[in-house]
């Protein structure tokens, strides 16, 4: 199977290597073309522009860093639109907002092309190991055709229906995560202030029905006050805001998520927005972080 | 090692059988003595009264159904107090409130006896499999001496310090659980109302960092509206109330737990108190459960 | 003093009559011109179009029903922009969102005109009695010049700084109102469920430091389940959402407003959005309104 | 009409003077008897002990500082119980908890006496001016008989039914107050952080439907960071806790009060418990009060 691949950042590089390793013919492009060299050593061809990649390949996958980059490869000169047509499929695996995704979808489909949004859950390590979770939405026939590629890239892929549903699913997941993190933080603080050893709480939780990788990972770092950002608090709060807005549109009351969102806002007001989202723990302390 | 064992309900029967199976000499007592027969077939001796068991055994373990039963075996005629002394240890594994535990502790220790409270996390199946988690507090020397028994009964035991800390740990754990269940319920409802398939959300969550046995167990039953009580909602709400009271004593703000508690109270007001605590999901529905 | 006046709805008619009664020369325009007749009987002149009014008058006041109407009188054919110049002042007293207000402001000022947004607090009765509260923002010199008109229209006017601040002030006020209404509703429900007579609570509140016209007005109607909309619940919820968004921009945690917002969302999910905002009381009831 | 009067603190002195001024014959007692002198100058008689007062007077009113003092005058040697009988009525106007009130009620009625609890709303100034609000509960016939005294002491009295309802009404009122104060604090903070002048918000609120004496009094002091305690924050939080507990008993969800309670707890954790309850405003600030 032959695919185009746009974007060779941390994620894109790992993913295109995986495809090559599994026998796919891959034509790569990257804004800084020199980044293509390593891929070429592993058997990739090079496309000079996004348009050139699409011209050559029936299926083109992209994973770009942000909405402007995602829009640029589509709409700019030598972009995808110049070569898209009813024999081509475009799969955007970047994490972008629903508006950006819709704009790209409309442009592709209005020229007869087929489109899938397919944001992923998982970062560098799962990308290297082919263990991503893929949240695809858009053209179902295209989804079925590129499944062999998804099977290489991820441990599981979902087809979620119309364009936008991939982004929505990420919001619901991240909202649940934000509330869970607050539940955990309050538990740790209550244990400590009640004369219990918080480490014991972590151990007890880990032995029971609530045991999960996030608690296992974040519990010890919270106790060490190590908030090196894996997922920045301000991004977590933004996702909770967007999830609450989604609930607002659909008249879904979410009192616990709303309370969690306010805790993250409190953390932002304390200047913790760039730290890891587990730093919401600091909002429960008697005194602001400056003096603790 | 020889131990007395008081209370042969679902938990006590499984636990005493485990002790017998691992070579402990066990003298059992139960309010309804006929319940002792099966244990006798497995090698247990019978004590006629709690006092008789204590008289015979250096260590006596009890697991009774509720605070009145726990108090009764200690304070009533033929109760433990009649035979307790400085050579005896009493280990109460019942789930009781801190006041009950303190009352028992004071009575035992004032007569020279040694005392451990040791409530467990886990129900019938873990009891049978020796996979309980034991939250012990009180006399440390006694804890060390009965560790061989705890090793048979549980996969892990904790010594948490002074009497009361076992009960507190359970509250902190259950509070975290109640907030997590609300986070989960809101996520499922938001998914459904936003045009996503809630089953997809369960699958995505199960593949990620939040994956945990509780979500795995309760997700499907929530989608089936099956609220057969494993842990009744009214007990969950009571534990959240007590955890919030513990936070109040120690000036710990817990806004997310407070919001979750109100959701459980809303559920109680809808008549759902006797259902499983996952029925808090119903409070998020457009119309009360009577018409849904 | 001569002023133009655009829009003769309930508010505009009462306000322009007040100006006439106090000796202002008023040139009126309304989309349905026949509505001008009554004003003419009280001494008003008629302008054929918004542009004609602006051409004739140094100051033109408008109070339109909604953002599209507010934009239309400015941007459409025969609209204000055709005659605006550096000798003219335009005062928009409509209640519109900040974006609409900014769009109008930019168009007016880019042509040299001066602009004030001036939404009002108060409805029909205060408009008739000249007892409005005017929340003006924009051009301070223009504000000072039209103060004689504001003094006739309102009991008090505020100059709040740059364009947008008038809309923001309304949001802050309405957010406070929404939280207060929830506080009140919870109090009434708690009184009733605790065996107290809710009417006694209303009387006690009315005799103390919290006594206010809103409680006095809404208390009896809540007890009668009379939710005839004075301020529709869905508009209250929208204002809370916008106020929370404003707080989000500025990293202001507002846990109580967030909880109140969720209660209003719950009410919307129960189908109460078109009723009065005091219908949030229904969310506290044991069973949904359909069966109560 | 002749009444006994026990307790001549700030409140009791003002109240007994009012009774004398309106022609009542008053027999006073105070733990420190010298405090009776001023009353004697205004025409009062002195009773040597509570029992002596009750022996002399058909109706005895008490207003003591706290529950132990309230219990002491009833149960101690020379206390009320020694002379109470079916021709006597005892009216306790102290602010005590429901348990204390019940204990006193049972003791009085079991000896044939009649009892009213009658806590008041209002402090020194309203006491002097006869403008208290009286929340009476207990024996209705006794209430009717002492109405002439209540009419002198208060601007309004309520008969609320069975003993305990007076205390409950105070909790409901104070819960509403605590939520309102949070709504107000959040509004002031949002105004300030959004570029509005908070003083303008106070002025706008004061001109509208939410205008109330509490906002009028507390708004300016909040802006001055003047938290001299009129009603200590820790007492406000305690009343919210008790009101939430009352709601818990009766399955009343109160999400806004719960969020407000957590804000007061946060304030306590910041060391603000002894300041005025309006100091909850400080919890909304970017940095803890130590560094602001």
From TrEMBL, chains A, B, C, D:
3-hydroxyisobutyrate dehydrogenase-like NAD-binding domain location: 164-282
Entry superkingdom: Eukaryota
Lineage summary: Eukaryota, Viridiplantae, Streptophyta, Embryophyta, Tracheophyta
GO molecular function: glyoxylate reductase (NADPH) activity; NAD binding; NADP binding
Keywords of this entry: NAD, NADP, Oxidoreductase, Stress response
Source organism (scientific name): Acacia crassicarpa (northern wattle)
This protein's record includes keyword NADP: yes
Catalytic residues (UniProt): 170
UniProt entry tagged with the keyword Cytoplasm: no
UniProt xrefs under Pfam families: NAD_binding_11 (PF14833), NAD_binding_2 (PF03446)
Protein name: Glyoxylate/succinic semialdehyde reductase 1
Classification via SUPFAM superfamilies: 6-phosphogluconate dehydrogenase C-terminal domain-like, NAD(P)-binding Rossmann-fold domains
Role this protein plays: Catalyzes the NADPH-dependent reduction of glyoxylate to glycolate as well as succinic semialdehyde (SSA) to gamma-hydroxybutyrate in vitro. May function in redox homeostasis and play a role in oxidative stress tolerance by detoxifying glyoxylate and SSA generated in glycolate metabolism and GABA metabolism, respectively.
